[in-house]
Amino acid sequence: MTDMTDVPQTARARRPHRIAGFNTLELAAGLVIVALGLLVVFESLNYPWGSLRNVGPGIFPFLLGIVLAGLGIAVIFEGRLSDAVAPVVPWRAMLAICAGLGAFAYLIDRAGAFVAIFALIFLSGFAERRYRPLPLLFTALGLCAFVAALVLGFRGVVNMTLLPAF
């Protein structure tokens, strides 16, 4: 039995929205999965099927698309029994992590791995409610040391710029 004393009052009071008995959250997710499955099926028709003895490249995505669409239908009908409600989106955390990943992608080739790692760690640190720079500094230094050991240990295999070229 779940103890409801630690669950916020707003989370206890929320009820799922339903359309014709279907949970709208599950219905939307199922419809997206079905649409994706049908898209895969129709795109696979552009490839040759081959034969049973010599299967072509179109058969596998066709079958996967059918399975995906079937799973989407299962999600839709499972939604009749579901009491799931839409989660509260943590916008601050999502934006901080996306900003960190974007900064890493932008800086990795321009400023080197060390600068990109520091930007990734420190920008993603804003996802926490309380920003703690000291643990983030140790995390960034540890990750930089690991990357440096990896690059130096596998010289010639891992080619990565560690520091910016001035």
Describe this structure in words.
- With 166 residues, the protein is mainly α.
- 60% of the residues lie in helices and 2% in strands.
- Strands 1-2 form a two-stranded antiparallel sheet.
- A hairpin with a 2-residue loop joins β1 and β2.
- The chain is flat, with a radius of gyration of 24 Å.
- The chain starts with 8 loop residues before the first helix and ends in a 13-residue tail after the last helix.
SSE layout:
Layout lengths: L8 H5 L4 E2 L2 E2 H21 L14 H20 L12 H20 L2 H12 L8 H21 L13
Antiparallel strand pairs: 1-2
Helix pairs in contact: 2-3, 4-5, 5-6
Short recap of the structure:
The protein is mainly α and 166 residues long. The chain has helices spanning 9-13, 24-44, 59-78, 91-110, 113-124, 133-153, and strands at 18-19, 22-23. It folds into two domains: 4-78; 91-153, no CATH class.
Instruction: Bin the helical content.
Output: 55-70%
Strand segment count? 2
Q: Element order, helices and strands? A: HEEHHHHH
Give the averaged pLDDT, no decimals.
Answer: 85
List the total number of helices: 6
Shape: flat
| Radius of gyration, taken over Cα atoms and rounded to an integer in Å | 24 Å
Describe the sheet with the most strands: 2 strands, antiparallel
N-C termini distance: 62 Å
Total of domains:
2
Category by helix and strand content: mainly alpha
Strand order, largest beta sheet: 1-2
Contiguous runs where pLDDT drops below 50 for at least 5 residues: none
Strand content: under 5%
Descriptive keywords:
single chain, 6 helices, mainly alpha, two-stranded antiparallel sheet, flat, 166 residues
